[in-house]
Amino acid sequence: MADKLCRNARLNNPLPPDTDFSEEESKELQTLTHLPLVECSCYPAFSAKYLTRLDSSLRPLKRETQRKAISTYIQILSLLPDPTDNPYLGKFLQSPNAAGLPNLVASNFVQGIDWLRPSGPGHICTLLIHFLFWCDTSFGDDNKASIDKATRDALAARVADILAQPGIDRLPESQLIKLERLKGILISIEYMPGGYYLQSTNDFLKGQIRGQEECLACMDEDPGMLCSQCKAVRFCGKECQLKAWRSGHKNRCWVMVE
């Protein structure tokens, strides 16, 4: 399924300049992304195999002529599992390769996104929260957050506008909570000195990707064996590797193919 999502999103065959997804392509992608988010192993596998390709496909797109593609790629990003449970996403967000992506996503959220089910504003807010918590604050122009100051201000205004819209109570409670949470985080950033709030959170999270610094199976703090395929998780030895494989790592251990 991860490979099919990659093909349909044209990550192997990038869109030509100023060319957007057709209506047919958009409908097919909506069908593919409308999967049970927690139970489906598609998204961890997609993270392992195609995350950097999705990033490189998104960045050159022009909003004026490729709005559907931008909206689709951002929403696929928003459906990926939490970085704490998804070491592929966590490692990417904490790498220099993620620089600029928080601003790009935030700016497009402010300007408006064409929603594809099952995504929605709450999912994008969750993605933006991941950017704020996991990405280095030096990505931003004031070193207080990975998103620039002016973009944060526009983002706060956009969130407030969404929460004030008539019928907002019809949005699922889980999405409303994410909107309110992002609103609170943006306020906290402005009132905390320097980049202390988010940088301290980022430093804490660096050790929280399960399996990155600890054995994925038994949580021992000094694992000596790196997974030879994904190179994203560690084990104490063969016994723990087999245990982790059988308990679910086999669904996530996809080698990045370039």
UniProtKB/TrEMBL annotation:
Return the annotated region ranges for Disordered. 1-25
Named from the GO MF annotations, one term is: zinc ion binding
Provide this UniProt record's keywords sorted from A to Z: Metal-binding, Zinc, Zinc-finger
Q: What protein name is recorded for this chain?
A: MYND-type domain-containing protein
- Residue ranges annotated for the MYND-type domain, each copy included: 215-253
**Signal peptide start and end residues:** none
